[in-house]
Amino acid sequence: MRVERIESGFFGTNTYLAVCEDTHEALLIDPAGKWAAIAAKIDEMGARVVAIVNTHSHYDHANRNHEAKQLTHAPICVHRDDAAALASRFSFASTIFRGRTRLSPPPDRLLADGDAVDVGRLRFEVIHTPGHTPGGICLRYKKHLFSGDTLMAGAIGRADLKGGSHDQLVASIKDKLFVLSDDIFVYPGHGPRTSIEAERKYNLFVRLTPDQIDQLMFGPPRRKKRAEEPAPEKGDE
Fold first, then answer.
1. What is the DSSP secondary structure assignment for residue 212, as one 8-state letter?
2. What is the pTM of this model?
3. What's the DSSP call for residue 51?
4. Residue 44 CB burial class (10 angstroms; 0-12, 13-18, ≥19)
5. Could you tell me if residue 229 is inside a domain?
6. Residue 235 lies in a domain
7. pLDDT at position 231, please?
8. Are the C-beta atoms of residues 24 and 48 closer than 8 Å to each other?
9. What's the maximum distance between 2 C-alpha atoms anywhere in the chain?
10. Buried-most residue among 63, 136, 155, 190 (CB within 10 A)?
């Protein structure tokens, strides 16, 4: 398998092209950002995209689904718990950021934990990792894990957006990802590649509470100043 990363867009989203070198069939993961760069990479690789997978339904991971579908005619796949959000006809985020009223075509295939996405001779296992969104997933092929916004280098996804849960996200990481072998490479939705070993050892965000994370990122909360006591009136002394 050959993996190509295209980082682009306001949020620095990683779009991945995972290509079976025997058949040139490819999986397109999270098409978002600069479509011209994504299309150029598909052409450069001589890849035939046979599936488009969104690791979750957020705008910054799905805003080029329409173009990807038009070019490749491949099915759009997303976890069933994020399908309604992805298929929503109107998106506030897409309207604000791009003036586009349609976020994505409806998904063609609804995924569930344990499903497989076959691409040439590659078989990607679907791992349901809710917490960032209800239908967040990771995709695993042998020693390669595409983790979306579940797990990143030294970080985890936000859990304070609609449908998010910090406890659920941490449980997903500990129970489904950290049980994998150390030598698995992790390809996150943002930032550089990492490994299961590195994140299990050094990722503080998996160990901290939301309040501790806030303090780590923004410092301790400021104490409110006490209201000034009124000066004593004459005769009260």
1. H
2. 0.86
3. E
4. exposed
5. no
6. no
7. 58
8. yes
9. 96
10. 136
Read out DSSP for 73-128?
Answer: -PPEEEEGGGHHHHH-S--HHHHHHHS-S---PPPSEEE-TT-EEEETTEEEEEEE
Q: How far apart are CA 73 and CA 202, in angstroms?
A: 41
Cα–Cα distances in angstroms (integers) from residue 32 to residues 56, 66, 164, in the given order: 12, 10, 21
Question: When comparing pLDDT for 164 and 90, which is higher?
Answer: 164
User: Tokens 């990722």 label which residue?
Assistant: 203
Asked if residues 199 and 186 have their Cβ atoms less than 8 Å apart, the reply is yes
User: End-to-end CA distance of the chain, in Å?
Assistant: 86
Query: For residues 28 and 26, what is the distance between their CA atoms, to the nearest angstrom?
Result: 6
Q: How would residue 90 be classed by pLDDT, with cut points 50, 70 and 90? A: very low
- Rg (C-alpha) for the chain, rounded Å, is 22
The 10s digit of each residue's pLDDT in 115-148 is 999 999 999 999 999 999 999 999 999 999 999 9
What is the domain count for the chain?
1
Looking at residue 213, its pLDDT comes to: 73
* CA distances, 61 to each of 20, 157, 178, 218 (Å): 23, 13, 24, 26
- Is 230 within a domain? no
Task: Look at residue 10 in the predicted model and tell me its pLDDT.
Answer: 87
Q: What is the pLDDT of residues 4-17, one digit of tens each?
A: 999 998 889 999 99
In terms of residue numbers, what domain contains 123?
Answer: 2-218
**Number of CB atoms found within 10 A of residue 171's CB:** 14
- 199, part of any domain: yes
CATH number at residue 13: 3.60.15.10
